[in-house]
Amino acid sequence: MPDMRPDALDVDPETSRIVEAEPYPLSFDLSTTALIIIDMQRDFLEPGGFGELLGNDVSLLRSTIQPTKDVLEAARSAGLTVIHTREGHRPDLMDAPSSKLARGNLDLGIGDEGPMGRILVRGEEGHNIIPELAPLANEPVVDKPGKGAFFETDLQLLLQNKNIETIIICGVTTEVCVHTTVREANDRGYECLVLEDCVGSYFPEFQRIGIEMIKAQGGIFGWVVNSNSAISALERK
Ligand code: TIU
């Protein structure tokens, strides 16, 4: 006797998955799930970039690279939609609010010439995604002027046209661009699964609390799991 509940009619046993996430298991379908990798750019992860100029120790973010690489490979093998984002601005900086340009009273700030070219400017070396996670030609790269990946980008259009319902999130930094994007996605009706070892912060306490905040209150913003469990679900091991 087939399961005739309304939701069950849509379930394809070949592509449906369950991941033992927190705060409770999450069901998703490979055909309606996207992996979004947030801002894994040289400016945030390598010495001499914007992250370091803000006074941060970039080595704290680098532990996210290998697990994210593993998830990226599993997502590609599972046929997921893969989208990369980058934070940065037009060379004329007209898409950067003056508040953002002035913030921090930095000697070297957005648009200034740093060791990897002009900081957080599109087309510069530091703005590039780190080589370990280089996008494939068929993977969209969404350039965003803000912290959230939905703000003034075509991300929602891409997701709608691919019928995406669930987003698996990796990237940096946990409490800044990852959180902003998860919150934006949540309000737009997407289910978010944040991979705790694939998101990183310059502040260990913000990493811990940032993860707690997503899954608290019954998953107020979404679900959390580690990369191994996510990969197992994608591969259905
Ligand atoms: N400074 C910091 O933690 N993050 C950012 O400025 N951008 C992102 O998180 N991508």
Protein model, in words:
The protein has helices spanning 42-45, 50-53, 65-78, 98-102, 155-161, 174-187, 204-219, 227-235; strands at residues 16-19, 26-29, 33-38, 81-87, 113-114, 117-118, 141-144, 166-172, 191-200, 223-225. The chain is an alpha/beta fold. α3 (65-78) packs parallel to α8 and α6 (174-187) runs parallel beside α7. The radius of gyration is 18 Å and the shape is globular. Bound molecules: tricarbonodiimidic diamide. Tricarbonodiimidic diamide is lined by residues 39, 44, 54, 87, 147, 172-173, 176-177.
**Poorly predicted ranges (pLDDT <50, ≥5 residues)?**
none
Radius of gyration in whole Å, from Cα? Answer: 18 Å
Name the structural class: alpha/beta
What's the rounded overall pLDDT mean? 95
Number of strands: 10
Total individual domains: 1
Q: How are helices and strands ordered from N to C?
A: EEEHHHEHEEEHEHEHEH
Rough outline: globular
The hetero compounds bound to this protein are:
tricarbonodiimidic diamide
Q: Tell me the quaternary state.
A: single chain
Main pleated sheet: 6 strands, parallel
What is the spatial order of strands in the main beta sheet? 7-4-3-8-9-10
Quote the CATH topology.
Rossmann fold
CATH homologous superfamily identity: Isochorismatase-like
Q: Termini separation (Å)?
A: 27 Å
CATH class: Alpha Beta
Question: Could you write a compact summary of the structure shown?
Answer:
This protein is of the alpha/beta class and 237 residues long.
Question: What key phrases describe this protein's structure?
Answer:
237 residues; alpha/beta; Rossmann fold; six-stranded parallel β-sheet; 8 helices; 10 strands; 31% helix; binds tricarbonodiimidic diamide
